[in-house]
Amino acid sequence: MHVLFLTHYFPPEVNAPATRTYEHAVRWVRAGHRVTVVTCNPNCPTGVLYPGYRNRLRPQREIVDGIEVIRVWTYLAPNAGTVRRTLNYLSYMVSASLAALGVNRPDVVVATSPQFFCGWAGVIVSRLRRLPFVLEVRDIWPESIETVGAIRFRPVLRFLQYLERRMYLAADHIVTVGEGYKRKILEKVDIADRISVIPNGVDLEKFRPRPPDPALRAKWQGDGKFVCAYVGTIGLAHGLDVVLDAAELLRRQGRDDVVFWLVGEGARKAELQAEAQRRGLDGRVVFTGGLPKEEMPRVLASADACLVHLRKTELFETVIPSKIFEMMAMGRPIIMGVRGDALRIVEESGAGVAMEPEDPKSLLGCVEKVRNAPWGEEHTEKVRDFLMRYYSRDVLAGRFLELLVRVAGRVPDKSKCGSYEGELTLAGGPR
Length: 431
Description:
This protein is α/β, with parallel strands linked by helices. The protein has 2 domains: 2-201 and 392-416, Glycogen Phosphorylase B (Rossmann fold); 214-386, 3-Layer(aba) Sandwich (Rossmann fold). Helix content is 40%, strand content 16%. The protein has helices at residues 16-30, 82-101, 116-129, 143-147, 154-170, 179-188, 214-219, 241-252, 269-278, 296-301, 323-329, 341-349, 360-372, 377-390, 393-407, and strands at 2-6, 34-40, 60-64, 67-72, 108-113, 133-137, 173-176, 195-197, 226-231, 258-263, 285-287, 305-309, 334-337, 352-354. The strands form 2 sheets. It has an 8-stranded mixed beta sheet with strand order 3-4-2-1-5-6-7-8. A 6-stranded parallel beta sheet has the order 11-10-9-12-13-14, sandwiched between helices. Helix 3 links the parallel strand 5 and strand 6. Helix 2 (82-101) packs parallel to helix 3 (116-129). The protein is globular and about 65 Å long. 48% of the residues are buried.
């Protein structure tokens, strides 16, 4: 089978959609299938091209671990500013649609969000080429951009909501990453017979417990201190003012035994960095910048706890940040500042403690809980067993592959659909 996969993000970018797409696609290739990915030249989140890449009108081709990758021209923009980002998204939709028309004999088209217009590229290509279309929904647009205040003009939001419903109806099948997303979609369109949940997961071989790196802890001012690390996008949705507020509370108490690492880039990094400097939080909050994906195990292993946080809003209760699975696999306690589906996973697995989102006192209380709680090898193995049962990337890639085989009308070779047995369960994970 030949899978044509449209995605705005792909390695060497290190965000969740890039990782999920790569880790599924590489397993499908190993199973004997052909995968062609149409994506941008890597530039997220700064809008600056990664070294070695050029943003040309003529698509550029490369092979990444057996995956055929076509990189198309886009209007480059940082992960901030509504107008420029919209131009970036629309330019990808046009360029990706044109490039996909020239891909030789695919059997099925998959498009993943974010971003929203990537899904519409999938609609266009599937209609023009008369191919079955699977839409992967990793974010509920336009609700999420309305929630963070990126767009407030009601006529524009209503038009985007119309496009959203049309996109859902155009798909032959929809895959979401959580039950909360599935519920949201079914509130908008009646397609219960063609929507499945295949959650995010983790490569348990890449992410496994290891000793901390003393040199890294010293470099980022963690020597002799409790290190609480936030790893990921520093964006509008993440509410990371709470970290600065918590660090300031410690400063007022005369304490310097805790340091917060903010590892990543994003729309609010410069603003938060300037604010931390203004408050005199040097050495208490360390902005490390973005790092390659292969550095993440070293970073996570060197932290004493990991913070996962989103702003306190009902919509974000449906979000399951994929980073939690990597933190769990590394044996790192999680301070969970996200309510809803993600918190249930952390609580059921025993992988961490819950804080009240956007509450610095609650964050500091959780730091003390983790600091004083035993977290040995036996506990870590229980958490990893939980991941193996429900969130192994090998198993989830196999489930997705079998779904694509069915949608494409092919007869599956179950020996190549992933290391799982028995009837396919598309919901995935505990209820």
